[in-house]
Amino acid sequence: MKGITEESLRHVMKMHDMDDSKTSLIFSHLFNECTELNAWQPIDENTPKYKTILIRFDDGEKEAGVLTSDGWQSTYADDFIESPTHWQELPEDPK
Fold it and tell me: Distance between CA 51 and CA 65 in Å, rounded?
């Protein structure tokens, strides 16, 4: 997945002196569409099951884990994990 930050868009606009009203309107719409890629999601009913994901705890620690019908299973050990608060997709493997 590719993306561009709002900061990068603003830099391009300034670098090319794009300040006419039509261009400003286009960039304004692009700025409004900027969203954080792969943002942290709260653990809830939408959390994927039976898929390895990155999970985060209140203390900031992170670990890869899988939500099963028995609870959170660590992918590093045979341990069950207690109370993660957020999750996000793992990045794609390098090509």
Answer: 8
List the domain boundaries for the chain.
1-36, 41-88
pLDDT recorded at residue 33: 77
Query: E strands along the chain, which residues?
Result: 41-42, 53-56, 62-68, 71-74, 80-81, 86-88
Angle between helix axes 21-33 and 6-15 (nearest 10 degrees) is 160
In contact, 57 and 84? CB cutoff 8 Å: yes
Sort strands 80-81 and 41-42 into parallel, antiparallel or unpaired: unpaired
Cα–Cα distance, 56 to 81 (Å, whole number): 11
Residue pLDDT, tens place only, 21-69: 787 788 788 877 777 777 899 999 999 999 999 999 999 999 999 999 9
More confident residue, 10 or 65: 65
Alpha helices by DSSP H, the chain = 6-15, 21-33
